[in-house]
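Hello, quick one for you while I still have it in my head. My current little project is about how a certain protein chain folds up. You're getting the sequence in one-letter code plus the fold written as tokens. Would you mind checking whether the tokens look sensible for this chain? Here's the protein in full, and shout if anything looks odd to you:
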Amino acid sequence: MEYNLALIGFGNVGQGLAEILSKKAPLLLEKFDADIRIVAICDLYKGSIADPSGFDPQALLDYINEKGDLKEFPASDKGWDARETIEMSGANVLVELSFTDLKTGEPALSHMIQALESGMHVSTTNKGPAALHFPKLLELSKTHGGEIGVEGTVMSGTPTLALGMNLLAAAGVTRVQGILNGTTNYILGEMENGAEYADALKDAQAKGYAEADPAADVDGHDAAAKVVILANLIMGQSMTMEDVSCTGISGITRDQIQAAQAENQRWKLIGTLENVNGQIEGSVKPVKLDATHPLYGVSAATNAIAFSTDLLGDITLIGPGAGRIETGYAIIGDILSFPH
């Protein structure tokens, strides 16, 4: 099966995907009969190129590493905007990698709607549309015949949604708890090692874990978006961002960290979905975990999720929640789940 990809955005994740394809294309073809090609790239800053025969992914990476953009990269078509790229590139898969907006989901939402209405498959790591508009996008996919994959929106390439939606569906998921933001987990870990909050945040920014404006991470909004996605896809809810009670980590002090350590406990920012009086409620807040809790030992920028089920008890999945290769792999997972 040929999967011709149009990438909207060619930052870390797009380049991670290209790196995977440069190394694993023969394996993907042999093992999965998946001939995956990049036929178009549209990036606001790096340029827009398209060629129906596809691009050599390693050549793309080499060129952008040398030149910084793709504006002069050899291609049959150049200069298309996102709408033109989706309409004219001949791609049958849209890979939506533009910036995340947790208030409107735009511009990614419009790109995905256009692609789905034209019958294309869509894979995205963009939390905005998945958290705010997934029911609408799913309905469009059913109406027009394309599939939509959002694995990379929750725990990067760690197959959280695939596990919860498929393998655990019959086990009856009753509760979900997760460390869904690696930045805050790293900061809390550094505070355990003696750092003050402000210094730990600066260190996280220096290492690239936190943005210059860290509010989405430290205030809990990034984790809340993931809670919404988990609720809607795994637990069959129609939850919105407004339904999730959200408290970040900026109020956690060194004294609280030390007091927890003295009791063999650890503070973690936990996203939770649980049944409260017959209703599934979502929350994000700092929680003190005992050493017996499955998420207690998760350190650094790692993510983890614990599913409580009727038939299997507790199942815990631990893995990377960020990274260019790791998140690029989520796109590969989505594509391989699309029908041949």
Remarks:
- The first helix runs from residue 12 to 32.
- Residues 230 and 253 are 30 Å apart (CA to CA).
- The two ends are 6 Å apart (CA to CA).
